[in-house]
Design a protein that fits this description.
Layout lengths: L1 H20 L1 H5 L1 H12 L3 H30 L6 H7 L6 H22 L3 H47 L4 H11 L4 H13 L4 H6 L1 H4 L3 H16 L3 H50 L1 H4 L1 H4 L1 H25 L4
Helix pairs in contact: 4-12, 6-7, 7-8, 7-13, 8-9, 12-13, 13-16
């Protein structure tokens, strides 16, 4: 009987010791007590979460900027279809290449009818088919970018006023797509169409730089994307961006005004030999005709053309400023 009485008493004692010393570690009561004690403290309870939020937001912004910089650095050669879209043309790549080939063939046929020769005809045909269309494409692209930069700061100001008035960002973009000037209107319409198919508005704004490859469009896409990821005062950020855009616009106009004298001088120097040659040909055609009738004269003309091209290229590099 003593065994039956002592055994339950020993079991109860062992269970009590285990309940007191072992159960808190297994159930997590000690951790809960420590957490409650840390919450009850007044020192780190407010500071630690704020530091963590500020640090995470700063790291998120830095990571986004690094991604944008890496994307800009690793940009590959722009396809022909994208360059056609950047120029504002609604042509397919196949149609553009067919047009260029037809232009080159037409120039070659014309040179054969005139009797210039096969080699000069091939050179002119290659320049007309492989150089002139791409030069026109680049010219249209530059002109479209200039028009975009002319109206883009006003569009950013409209977004800032709309956000301050309580409109959502998407409604402000729709307002620009409806009432702004071209090509800003069509580009913001593309942003809205891209957003409606499920792409986030930050990514849709980043694609603006692909269609209009200017730094201002890249700035706008980065600001919108970072705000969508990390939050912040969008109206203040876009207001600062608008100020930067207008300052860049003023700087560009100032550079153009200061470089106009150099550009005029370069144009006069480049056109002077051709003008003198034309005047001499009108007054004394027999005297200057030796340049294209004699082999030595043709060599001199070719050498003069090379040196004139080098001089014009150097002057163009000297008077063009990138900022």
């Amino acid at each position: 009987m003593n065994v039956y009485v002592v055994f339950p008493m020993v079991a109860v004692a062992i269970g009590g010791v285990a309940w007191v010393f072992v159960y808190p570690f297994l159930s997590g009561e000690r951790n809960a007590e420590r957490r409650m004690a840390s919450v009850a403290r007044s020192e780190p309870a407010v500071q630690r979460p704020t530091r963590g939020v500020q640090k995470s937001r700063r790291e998120q912004v830095e990571g986004s900027l690094k991604q944008f910089e890496a994307r800009t650095r690793t940009a590959k050669r722009v396809p022909l279809s994208v360059r056609i879209a950047q120029a504002g043309l609604k042509l397919s790549t196949r149609r553009f290449m067919v047009t260029a080939g037809a232009l080159g063939l037409g120039v070659f046929v014309f040179t054969m009818l005139v009797g210039i020769g096969i080699l000069p005809g091939l050179g002119l045909a290659f320049a007309a088919g492989g150089g002139l269309p791409f030069w026109i494409l680049r010219f249209l692209k530059k002109r479209r970018e200039s028009r975009f930069l002319l109206a883009f700061p006003d569009a950013v100001d409209v977004i800032v006023r709309g956000i301050k008035a309580g409109l959502p960002l998407l409604d402000s973009l729709k307002l620009i797509a409806a009432e702004s000037e071209e090509p800003v209107r069509s580009e913001f319409r593309s942003i809205i169409e891209t957003q409606t198919i499920g792409i986030p508005i930050g990514e849709a704004c980043l694609k603006l730089f692909e269609r209009v490859p200017v730094p201002e469009a890249n700035f706008f896409g980065i600001v919108i994307s970072i705000q969508q990821r990390a939050g912040g005062n969008l109206s203040e950020a876009l207001g600062n961006l608008s100020k930067v855009l207008r300052d860049r616009k003023k700087m560009k106009a100032k550079i153009q005004a200061m470089s106009m004298e150099a550009k005029a001088s370069a144009g006069i120097i480049g056109a002077l030999p051709i003008a003198v040659m034309t005047v001499v040909w009108i007054t004394s055609p027999q005297y200057i005709s030796l340049l294209w009738t004699e082999p030595l004269g043709r060599m001199m003309l070719a050498a003069c053309a090379v040196w004139m091209s080098i001089g014009i290229f150097v002057m163009r590099k000297m008077i063009n400023f990138d900022f």
